[in-house]
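--- STAGE predict ---
source: upstream dedup step, 1 unique chain passed
mode: sequence only
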Amino acid sequence: MTLRLFTTRVRVLWESLSTSYWFIPLLMMSISVALCYACLSVIERAFLPDVLRPLIPLVTQESVQQLLSTVAGAMITVTSIAFSMTLVSLTLASNQFGPRLIRNFMQDRNTQMVLGILVSTFLFCLISLHHLSSINSNQDAVSMLAGATVFLALIDCVTIIYFIHHVSRSIQADQVIANCVQHFESNINSLLSVPESNASFRAIAEQWAAPQGDFLVSVKAVQNGYVQTINYSSFLNQSATEVAGSELHVRSGDHVLCGEALFTVHCRQPASEADFTTLRQAVVLGANRTPIQDPEFAISQLVEIALRALSPGINDPHTAITCVDKLTAICVQVASREFPAENLIHTSSEVWLKRRTFTFAGVVDKAYSQVRQSANDQIAVLIHLLKSLAKLQQSCAAIEQKTISTHAHSIDEQIATLTISASDKKSIEEAMLPFKSND
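--- STAGE serialize ---
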């Protein structure tokens, strides 16, 4: 496996680790073990600065044992409470905001750190109790254990208070929506990666990526799954004597069936699918869809919140309107960026690559189509959609305004089938004026 493919695999692995509740707590537990070892055999009380020595008084072994037992029992109780609150927030996220939003809650570093601190304190006390009888004559080690235990207990008290505040704040709809937008904005460079920014690659017109007389080799998927990330450089850095170019049939976020074609290689000499087993690893498949190279992932999360809010069971149009505002802000930000080119070529070897990429029209469709369809009886939401599309149109180039105008006219046709009041009709006519003037 080449370094580029290894880097791609590591990126997917890190994405998986960042959404787990065990990785950061396990690291912090390792730190607590190291701290316990330092208190037992490395740190001497006499070597501490004079300022810190009064904070770590000399204590008896019985006192330390009682302290460790008390803190350990309290920490395991508090940890169970923290886990219960975490599960409640995950259940609420799944029911009210949608299962797709669970990933955001599990990726929350604050929750991972809180769980890690609490479990690490319990582990520190447990190991200290286990070694306490063996350090009866080492008064410094006993005192250091007592001081470290009190210090960790104070941190845990502050941590649990913060955690209660954090959980109560994180389950609010506005905060959930804001977190989705923040995650998109912080990762927009990787979501809309532009390989042609590399000096070795450049964008080309489609007709230059269509050589004739090549030997075609179709490489198929060996498993079902979602395309999590693609290493485009691997396709462009192939040997020019063997390969003329490649056509990628999938992109990040697509679901692929076993046996479905991933890409086609245009070879200069006869070759088989087995010759490109390593290249197949450049297309990473997994059980879950990830936002690594998928700008529509965060948009889908906001759309899911809006659809839940518009459902008869929840019926919360205000949350849906908030989602529309955030979706419009994302589309405005995306409109000002350069989208990846569909056709690339290596500047020195002239190995080319044709691929499916994300487009502004696709982002707008993902953002507005389902919300518009689900808001059929929510006049306020439909009017707000028209106003948001008008704002988006002002921020876009003329070539992109046709896509926006199409959505506006679709909303107008949808409203025409409804029975509404005269005042609502007037509001809709005013909201449609920016689009009728461009017809």
